[in-house]
Structure to design on (674 residues):
């Protein structure tokens, strides 16, 4: 298996991302092709005593799509970027999956343009893995590939999320819920009501509506389906709530000796909670619904986060994920699942 | 000033809510009318050595709109409920404001039907007050009065939120932002893009887009404008993030003696953070845009939370809030504000 890693578009320099790629290559026995500036990649490989060619290869590129570049425009105007040449390598069968910590919108647009959509999937969606209180992960799709969504697209997010939960995460009989502002049927906006009807009438395992405050504590379902705008706000609001409570706690102990001593004694606990919540451990976010395995790593990804994102890509390649989506919803029926 | 308090529709029993009303009456020198079961109210007043009539009055009602009742249906079918007779007392000038910890949807529907909308305001919106890291509160509108929203409605939420921030919260030159999934202009869905154009072209002080993760820590604006569905998800996701991190922390210290000792030393800090984040201290959520002052208290409100909700109502009555909205956006112009 060969993974294509875009080393140019992230917030951290190429050598940090290459370090993660080399580490993944050694640990998982896979090959990595790095797309980007050849001299930077050559230097980093030399530093880690790895030779160019074979297990670790270079796909040279001339330009970079930056974080603040306009997605569609940059994809059109920078065909020689590390992002686009990397996607083309996957399209042409030179690599099995694409991993990048770059501009999310450009990865989505580039993937649609270069890899195309899976048959019958109207729009791709981004899936994230979140930790929950009970220890089992939660999967949320879509968290931002789309801003304006149709009920049919939500239905396909459910199909893809459930397939991912079953085939990649190894959940035995996964069940999906719709992110809504109340649990009763009929709650919420027209989009969600219409999607509810579609899901209820389908063979997909569907538990109805779920609410944002219960997801990380009660984990009422395995897969949460949302339109990309709301899913993105959800994700950032959770992050904001966590930052607020930790920030308030820091403000409160400042200058209070006993509380500071208490915080010192709890430092191991704080570190464990931080580790549980860290995106570094749960890799990147797969873009599901394009014709190929694409994983969007966090923009601030370091070597550890990149290694984890590559692992996520490997699991999807092994599960032959895009091909599974083509089977549609029928396999989820009472006799099919 | 006389406040109408609905004591029947909350999660807690009437005597707890009446206690909050009596406390507010004593502290703020205002009169309270309690709508609900007369015998329960009479008994509670006697318990607090207050007589019926005058300062503390009773508006008897026969039925109750429950939390799980369908909003519009219950408003139509229960005209003799504590909620509806209470709103009618405000409509008829027998009280200056309405406070209830009851069914949010029913309060919204009942307020629209009985009080009517403010002139030129297409839809009312619910505003919440949130604590932020720097200590200054943040105002978010709408958090759930509406599920399907138009750009024009978002514009009016901005107008009402800014007016509230200026006239009720006492912020000198408040500024509004649109809740979006990116800060650049053009980001997000069509609704938000269209509202952005309207706000940019208006005299309202508008800072552009804001993102969910930065609101409670950076507080980039005073007033956050959102459609009710997204605002509600935002609010519950923040709550979920806070619950997750505190729950994880509890799980982590269990059985670790030093960490438990640390938590003990930090208990004052935890209590202060909990107090800062508690809805009890920041009263209810005003429903802005109906012809009268309406405050929706939390369903789980105890006496302290009710007292705080009544205080929020008093401030709006003093600011003559509904009348301020009628002045429209023009007063916010360079020479008007």
């Amino acid at each position: 298996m060969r993974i294509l890693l875009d080393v140019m578009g992230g917030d951290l320099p190429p050598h940090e991302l290459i370090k993660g790629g080399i580490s993944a290559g050694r640990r998982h026995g896979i090959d990595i092709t790095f797309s980007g500036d050849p001299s930077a990649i050559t230097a980093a490989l030399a530093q880690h005593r790895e030779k160019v060619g074979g297990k670790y290869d270079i796909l040279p590129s001339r330009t970079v799509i930056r974080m603040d570049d306009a997605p569609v425009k940059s994809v059109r105007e920078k065909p020689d970027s590390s992002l686009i040449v990397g996607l083309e390598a996957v399209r042409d069968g030179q690599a099995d999956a694409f991993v990048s910590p770059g501009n999310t919108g450009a990865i989505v647009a580039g993937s649609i343009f270069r890899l195309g959509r899976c048959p019958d999937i109207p729009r791709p969606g981004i899936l994230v893995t979140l930790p929950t209180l009970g220890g089992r992960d939660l999967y949320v799709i879509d968290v931002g590939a789309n801003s304006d969504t149709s009920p049919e697209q939500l239905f396909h997010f459910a199909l893809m999320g459930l397939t991912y939960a079953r085939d990649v995460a190894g959940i035995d009989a996964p069940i999906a819920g719709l992110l809504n502002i109340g649990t009763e049927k009929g709650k919420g906006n027209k989009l969600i009501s219409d999607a509810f009807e579609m899901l209820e009438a389908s063979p997909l395992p569907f538990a109805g509506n779920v609410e944002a405050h219960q997801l990380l504590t009660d984990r009422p379902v395995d897969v949460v389906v949302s339109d990309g705008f709301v899913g993105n706000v959800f994700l950032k609001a959770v992050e904001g709530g966590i930052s607020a409570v930790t920030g308030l706690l820091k403000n409160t102990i400042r200058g209070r000796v006993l509380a500071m001593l208490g915080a010192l004694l709890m430092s191991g606990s704080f570190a464990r909670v931080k580790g549980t919540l860290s995106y570094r451990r749960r890799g990147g976010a797969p873009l599901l619904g394009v014709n190929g395995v694409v994983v969007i790593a966090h923009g601030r990804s370091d070597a550890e986060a990149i290694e984890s994102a590559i692992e996520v890509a490997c699991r999807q390649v092994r599960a032959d994920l895009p091909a599974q989506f083509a089977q549609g919803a029928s396999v989820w029926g009472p006799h099919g699942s």
